[in-house]
Amino acid sequence: MKALVKTAAEPGLELTDVPEPSVGPGDVLIKVKQTGICGTDLHIHGWDDWAASHVQAPLVVGHEFSGVVVEIGSSVTDVAVGDVVSGEGHLVCGRCRNCRAGRRHLCINTRGIGVQLDGAFAEYVALPSQNAWVHTTPIGFDVAAIFDPFGNAVHTALAFPMLGEDVLVTGAGPIGILAAMVSKHAGARNVVISDLSEQRLALASSLGVDLALDARTAKPQDAHDQLGMTEGFDVGLEMSGSPVALRDMISSMTHGGRIAVLGLPADEISIDFATVVLNMLTIKGIYGREMFETWYAMSVLLQSGLDISGVITDRFDHTDYEQAFAAARSGHGGKVIMNWES
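Structure tokens predicted for L-threonine 3-dehydrogenase:
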């Protein structure tokens, strides 16, 4: 089968032939339909320090995908051939303290497809049946392909109650915009988003945020007068990994404000902990998705009318992967999708 492979410890990927994955007793084989490009994939493609320390070539990359089940293992009873699925790309051990307590998203032995294990930028991918999320209501393969990043957004946005709150989202990448949309759908009063890209701010505005701020010329506090806010933000969602964004967020929160942090910084960040203490702020780190509570929330959000298709702005055939990666790396669009249907 054809797959995008990190063939050597150097920049770039290669579309090449690899063996079709085998299916164990508890696994399913999925015919991949569409895939989404993630920031992790950009790191691996560019072969930066993070990739060099986490990835061992050769490796089939990619972890955001949708497809159709074409084969099931002998012990699989919860997934059937023909099911339309997305995939939870974090594979957990099932034996550590958190796994055995039902907190699988906190597994200390987590491995990721497309990072430690062969991934989904391929014609077929195999994974444990429990990691296949079956879509029981009709859903497009493009939207199903971005359930992984959608889950990151949902996990972050629903970390704290949203109803009636004023929310600040720093970082208008695809996940930041998705988090803003979830916040609004969950009942937030005002949702403000900030970024450096005019195109992404325009996209966020078109998808329903109340105010989009250019971080080069505006501060979060500027939203107060424009939206009639009398105090600071109740909830902050830091999605950018920017030290400046986090510090600005902390200074703009109301007393008792709550911050969920998904954005990964490149280096250590210094913050004003006196403000955190004196204003009694809560800062919570977020990684991946809760397995599988977040997945239930994602499906219910779509069933209740949330339309996330507008976050997808670029579509390419998998053979045009270099153009697709260039579009994702530009930092100005929304989600980039690659089609794997032959």
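The domain at 153-285 is CATH 3.40.50.720 (Rossmann fold).
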